[in-house]
Amino acid sequence: MSQLSRLWALATRACQTSTVRWPCKDAGSEPKFSFAFCRVQRRETTWERVSIDVSEPRRGGTRKEGRKDGKDGDVATDSYRLWKEDVALLKEYGVKAYRFSLSWSRIIPLGGRDDPVNPQGIEFYSNLIDALLANGITPFVTLYHWDLPQALHDRYGGWLNKDEIVKDYTNYARRFWGYGRGVFAPGRSSDRERSQEGDSSTEPWIVGHNVILSHAHAVKLYREQYKPTQKGQIGITLNGDWAMPYDDNPENIDAAQHALDFAIGWYGDAVHLGFYPPYMREVLGNRMPDFSHDEWAIVKGSSDFYGMNTYTTNLCRAGGDDEFQGNVDYTFTRPDGTQLGTQAHCAWLQDYPDGFRSLLNYLWKRYKLPIFVTENGFAVKGENDMPIEEALKDSDRVHYFQGTTAALLTAIHEDGVDIRSYFPWSFLDNFEWADGYLTRFGVTYVDYETQKRYPKDSAKFLLKFFKEHDSSRTDTPKTDSAPTAAKIVDQANLSEVSSTSTVKTDTPPSPAAKPKEPKAVKARGFKARISRYLSSIVALVKA
């Protein structure tokens, strides 16, 4: 084990689980506010706008339905109302930490640095964090997870406007501690079947560039003004899957590295090493923005750890035409016609635990930072169409977690990878972005009609795993042995990699030792608590 107890945990995101309401306009009238909106004071985000159904003109619908099932995240799993039940269930599952995201538009409804703050939003997160701590669960807080306030996109173009978004994001961080294919918010694309505005050849790289700079400024602020007294960690979480050559053809071996350059190196190399991958510059030319010398000084090293969202492994062949994949063709079919692993409900996901171990090793050798596995999960094929009794017996998901947890332990004990947490995705079934409610990733089944929660077999497996590998327990034997995964060929390019020192995570204060706060100062205390558990997140789209 590492110097601290590993965080066996679960994860969700705000706009996939929490109640969402915003003011609507009826024809010929001023904006009207529903009771729910007055209660939560939360404004529309880019994800709500993308989810608009054109059959609802009261919401200003002007584009095609954004979800495969035509539904939105208005209620999702109703975690805004049912958060106490969710905390109790997390405790029952035996998790050590819970990763959730803040909703920017719940805290600052209009998003901007000069816009008013919503005290009800602060109180909601303050109560949630207090309850987690009281139950021995460490909050692992994500500042931003794709849900930009729509007001900022309308006001100045959102992430496309570097000067404005960096200032507004830094202000949001100070107070509280998808632009490519048109599938993810804000839905801009060169494909006019999807969107009437946007340029897929330039906008994704501009947005990514501005996201990195905004993150770096938020980290600089935290380190200068908060870390000296709070001694917490802050970092960025990146989405990226393992890439394997389709065969031993040298072009396909290169293609696998090119895929990693785009999927991981775009953000990872910039933040951790201080440069963009040379292959990206070669492909994109002058479409790839660059930072000034002073900006690179802020960007490089702007994360205390590597936050790893990963789900699958792709076999890679040269000759693809998708720039988001590095002009690499992805497949799950081996040269002999067999499949890499069990197929999930979503076409982009198959079960292949050896790739999980390989990716852990690649990231450790390339960046030399402790790794927090912040998302990892599986959607069982056809689960949404199953009777509840059948859906609870999610053997394919159990098999997935058996493989990834075994690979995780092997990476720790045999390969020496410094892994600090494992957050399976997800705690609950929820609103799965472009798939709406058709795809279920949860280890807890949610009946969306009644909002009742039912633990699946995968939750029972994880509960057993958490207990067996809880270093703070003395009543259960540890079974850290794991099946040996296939040995890994080191594909990391280490020629320009600089080692960064590991920063220890603070142990959260004991709830028993913490004096009860007067209600009048609760919001102020929230600022200190939330920044202590801060993780500034950006997830690259896997679509």
Question: What is the level 1 CATH name?
Answer: Alpha Beta
* Percent of residues in β-strands: 5-15%
Low-confidence segments, given as residue ranges, are 1-5, 15-40, 53-70, 178-198, 476-543
Instruction: Sum up the overall morphology in one term.
Output: globular
Main sheet properties: 8 strands, parallel
CATH superfamily: Glycosidases
The CATH architecture comes to Alpha-Beta Barrel
Overall domain count: 1
Radius of gyration: 22 Å
SS elements, strand count: 15
For the biggest β-sheet, the strand order reads: 6-8-11-12-1-4-5-15
Distance between the termini: 35 Å
How many helices does DSSP assign?
Answer: 18
The CATH topology is TIM Barrel
User: Which structural class fits the helix and strand makeup?
Assistant: alpha/beta
Look at the structure and give the mean pLDDT.
Answer: 77
- Percent range of helical residues: 25-40%
InterPro entries: GH, Glyco_hydro_1, Glyco_hydro_1_AS
GO biological process, one term: carbohydrate metabolic process
Protein name: beta-glucosidase
EC number: 3.2.1.21
